[in-house]
Amino acid sequence: MYPDGLCKLDDHTWSKCIEFEDVNYQLAKPDDQTAIFEALCDMYNAHDASIGMQLSLVSRRMNREDFVKRIEIAAQGDHFDHIRELYTQMLRKQLERGNNGLIKTKYLTLTIEARDSKTARARFSRIVMDALNHFKVMGALAKELGGKEWLEMLHGILHPDGERFAFEWSWLAPSGLSVQDFIAPSSFRFGEARKFTMADKFCAVSFLQISAPEMDDRMLTELLDTDSGLLVSLHIRSMDQNEAIKTVKRKITDLDAMKIQEQKRAVRSGYDMDILPSDLSTYGGAAKNLLQDLQSRNERMFLLTFLVVNMADTKRKLDNDIFATAGFAQKNNCALTRLDYLQEAGFMSSIPLGENLIPIQRGLTTSSTAIFIPFITQELFQRGAALYYGLNALSNNMILCDRKQLKNPNGLILGTPGSGKSFAAKREMTNAFLITDDDIIICDPEAEYFSLVQRLGGQVIRLSPAGKGMDGKPQYVNPMDINLNYSEDDNPLALKSDFILSLCELVIGGKEGLQPVEKTVIDRAVRNVYRPFLADPDPEKMPILGDLYNELLKQPEPEAARIAAALELYVSGSLNVFNHRTNVELSNRLVCFDIKQLGKQLKKLGMLIVQDQVWNRVTVNRAEKKATRYYMDEFHLLLKEEQTAAYSVEIWKRFRKWGGIPTAITQNVKDLLSSREVENIFENSDFVLMLNQAQGDRAILAKQLNISPQQMKYVTHTEAGEGLIFYGNVVLPFIDRFPTDTELYRLLTTKPEEVSKP
Questions:
Q1: How would CATH label the architecture of 7-64+101-164+176-239+300-370?
Q2: Distance between CA 347 and CA 188 in Å, rounded?
Q3: Does residue 364 contact residue 210 with C-beta atoms inside 8 Å?
Q4: Higher pLDDT, 268 or 579
Q5: What average pLDDT score do residues 421-449 get?
């Protein structure tokens, strides 16, 4: 084994290994399934007879301690360690319910013959690149394994209990050991005909006898859907096309000769010569179809060796596992046969090295070989600051992912009332609060987040027409607030002007929105109002809405007077809550803007102003290299007016560059989808949490997000906490059965009957 991942099997044989990840083949649309299948056929066809392929699917246990460490939230010595402990306990329970102790990995090992390592490397550079491109077409992430990575993988197979791997290339020379010494188990015993032991594990190698005329593409999925250790290996080697055609023609000639013999026998016995044995007729037709496939249908001939290694802690468990595996094979009209007196050779052939020592081969065409689809169930279980989102509905494994690793972390949470939207948002907020140092800001139109924010020591700002907070003291937020880092452009006023245009549009109302002259007048007034503050940025000089009103009255255009008249209600009228300088502390790590009391008249205005305040925070945090998470409920309200929608989408786009992670929450999916800007929203959101959907919304969402009918089942008439998670290109069905008998649940729930519990 060389450090770059080149492996020398003997004097002339070399191999390279590629690790590839899963794609959601089983839940994909029929067209997508066909595309994946054809891409797999193309990959097989691209390798000629000089290249050996070994497809390895490994199901093994990982060290449980490692898993527990990955989900535990470390104490930080603050007031929230108790909640961290509660959250960790919940994650441990979910880990026990899940199946994360078992990891499934997939490898393609390529084998060639070459004179020396230089020649082998030169040839592999093209072969490996082609294989990686084929995986890319299938939508599967793939990478070439380095020497140490390959050794670690082999160590994992040879130590099924998940013992840790320790190895450095610099250790070889001083120790006098070879790489085999670092990966080998404590012992092997091949004394028996039908099984062997590896350390304290009982193992057995079997081969799959393929006798079915047609195979199901779910066979490998069903085979690997087990809770025990399993190693499935497919050795695939292409036959020379001319040789394959000659072989089939010879078989057809043999069958024709047998047919003539049977006809002669029938004539001598006085029978009808057209009555032939059924096997002869069947095989004759099949051989002719095969010849046609090879000659005209882009099919090639492959020799396949299908090996299965079962591993268990006891002999009884091994026998049970083999029986279960044989049952899956039988279901697909195949037979699982034990390799008698070939256990050692079978096991060495099963290890992902590319060497096949078993002479049992089955001839199959390209499409018959590709029917063994190696894709099972996609997983999301990331390291680092990954947040918990529930269990994978297909594999029962935990879903842990970090939105910051996405190209665009912007997100949407969609679902009908009672589907668990607010709960999902609260769970993510709490998780992010406990394991990251991100700032979290919430726009709360229904006063749902108060208890959670209070428990986490956050600041609740209640915006009401009376201007009084929860403690009865005045609480004001100035919509005219600006800091000098407000925009990445030289002139921060350009973006601020867009915001004030949106605000005026909401104030004036009307279907047409603002006219061009009105926009010009407002823009001029904004620049005049901010000039003194920009010249001397003193907080006391920060303009308020009243200053904009007075400036508009100074403008000569009649449109200015109209706009000012509309603003009067919000400056000196009964809704003057936004005509004051900000007097609340906005520097708290967790801030919730409670806008429930604003009512219908002011709610949209309140949401827009909160959005602007968040943008101010984002600009401050950017300089400190700190992320800002922003959750906005009833987001669809901001998309109803054209200017407001355009501004909201512009902010939505800018958030990512500035370290912001916005999350829009809505139950009115129809209103969201009816907006002109919805395309921009979806295009700039790589994270979607989709819960139960109303019938009218499902078809539109399926088209918008390219959801297959199989995937759509997970958002149709589902219970709370069930749905689909979109993470970049990964789409997974999830179930979140959050333990209800905990303090944490009472903190997160929004059900009226549960909120009141002590």
A1: 3-Layer(aba) Sandwich (3.40)
A2: 11
A3: yes
A4: 579
A5: 89
